[in-house]
Amino acid sequence: QLQLQESGPGLVKPSETLSLTCTVSGGSISNSTYYWGWIRQPPGKGLEWIGSIYYSGSTDYNPSLKSRVTVSVDMSKNQFSLKLRSVTAADTAVYYCARDYSGGLGPFDYWGQGTLVTVSS
Amino acid sequence: DIQMTQSPSSLSASVGDRVTITCRASQTITRYLNWYQQKPGKAPKLLIYAASSLESGVPSRFSGSGSGTDFTLTISSLQPEDFATYYCQQSYSTPPTFGGGTKVEIK
Predict the structure, then answer these.
(1) How confident is the model at residue A102 (pLDDT cuts 50, 70, 90)?
(2) Which distant-in-sequence residues (6+ apart) come within 8 Å of B57 by Cβ?
(3) Which helix (H) or strand (E) holds B101?
(4) CA distances, B84 to each of A81, A120, B92, B103 (Å)
(5) ∠ CA B22-A115-B73 to the nearest 5 degrees?
(6) Measuring CA to CA, which residue among B75, B43, B42 is closest to residue B58?
(7) Hey, of A108, A109, A110, A113, which one would you mutate to test binding to chain B, going by the most B CBs within 10 A of its CB?
(8) How confident is the model at residue A105 (pLDDT cuts 50, 70, 90)?
(9) A-to-B residue pairs, Cβ atoms closer than 8 angstroms
């Protein structure tokens, strides 16, 4: 059974960089069928797609975040990662990693449990 | 970006009720429409993809329909475990976008 698990700091200071890693188990991140994505959800609000990556390293980002986001993949560790620079309180959210089986735009069929990241000094 | 608008934003229903949730796209997305269920403190769960295809393991009381700009998620007979928030999501063009959610509460 495929499992995804987010990891990283739960508290980040304003203007710093948020860094999260998603570890995939029960399947290979280099499977050419799938993309791998990051989605976030501010407390009490809806879902926002951040970006997706293919095992080859090809990426697609939400234009609203593109200038601050980098998603990368490490096939040797079966992981993919998110970096979000220059964070503000508006970036406080639960961050989810997910598998995407159709080209980077969803549907997202497997999700991690999510990790809350709070931006505060 | 394609805007996804769900209605209603919340509803109250009883066990056994038939429930319908609507999702409208700001432009045509053909059938690139997915539905998710989210319970408090949990990740979303994929229910329906490509407008009407039931994800493996999802009960058959869930169904989806529609094409173009207007879509519907129907729960034929609401069960206690179905009280949750439901989101639609378009996968027609980047960036993929989600509706604002419909919270289904117990009457």
Answers:
(1) confident
(2) none
(3) none
(4) 29, 30, 25, 6
(5) 15
(6) B75
(7) A108
(8) confident
(9) 58
